[in-house]
Amino acid sequence: MIQIFNGPPEGLQRAPHELRMLAAGHRVAVREVAFTGVHHKEGLMMAFLGGLALTDHFGRNWDALFDVLTDPGQFPRDLALVLCDYPYFRRKHARLAADLETVLLDAQARAAETGRRLWLLVQESDAHPDARL
Where is the Barstar (barnase inhibitor) domain (predicted)? Predict the structure, then answer.
């Protein structure tokens, strides 16, 4: 099995088992964003606000999310963003998920341009076994 943190981030990837232990071994910070109960953009932004431990000054829009994810002062150089229950959310809210993925992938590319690494890891949920990446 290839260890996910041995290579560069490549789009949305399946979160490995023992994620936190693997991340710690590679000095990768981990933040989780839970999509359970998210049905609209405001709820999505609130999920990121909580998951990333942002302040209430977070603009709660796509540009603000991009800025936070690409700000070198906001997170360590290597960050794994774990998208919990994302496959189910993506299936139920395809348009909103597409907009989000554009922002996340753009942020991942910008991070790479500045010598940082942003993994976008999708974690399956036992609550939604039919939801797959």
Answer: 29-123
Residues 52 and 88: their CA atoms lie apart, in Å, by: 21
Q: How far apart are CA 33 and CA 35, in angstroms?
A: 6
- Token pair of 26 as six digits: 């590679």
Amino acid at 27: R
Domains within the chain, CATH numbers bracketed: 4-123 (3.30.370.10)
Cβ within 8 Å of residue 86, ≥6 positions away: 35, 97, 122, 123, 133
In tens, the pLDDT along 2-51 reads 689 999 999 999 999 899 999 999 999 999 999 999 999 999 999 999 99
- CA–CA gap between residue 5 and residue 45 (Å, rounded): 27
Tell me the two tokens of residue 123: 């974690």
What integer pLDDT is reported at residue 1 of this predicted model? Answer: 43
Residue found by looking up tokens 């989000």 in the block: 100
Q: What whole-number distance in Å separates Cα of residue 93 and Cα of residue 71?
A: 28
